[in-house]
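Page 47, continued from p. 46.
Same chain as before, 170 aa.
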Amino acid sequence: MISPESEPRPAFTPGRRYVLKAGAAGAAALLVAPAFAEAADSDIVKANPKDYPLQAFLQKTEQHTLADLYNKVPEESDKITLDAPEIAENGAVVPVNVSTELPSVTGIALLALDNPYTLACAYKLPAGTMSDISSRLKLAKTTKVIAIIESNGKLYSTSKLVKVTLGGCG
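Result:
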């Protein structure tokens, strides 16, 4: 007598429902893929390398960075929200959020004053874009983080001291 364990198992044969579901998913993917590709291409904003503020990223002081980036001095504003931790347990990854109620924002920049290079990131915002950014900064040590907002041709800022307790970029 042959036991069921000793009989060879038959090869997998997909059932009717399995084949129909797989075929429907493949057809849907073929129909939708061109629409996604077209939408993705139309939403891309191409950066002009001439607009990239390379010199600003190489500066080591707040004054020189602002001179290269905007050639203006910011004024303090209470309409900017800078959300950063008071104590960063790991300086390699510090989450920072910046938002503002100011109208017609065209640029947002984050400066970390005690980093080897002051400018951490800079964003150019197209008209109609929400003026809200999130980034993760690498901080060398405890430092003052400054958010700069360009609105209607003027600069506004706010700052926060972030204490770093472990590792960073230094």
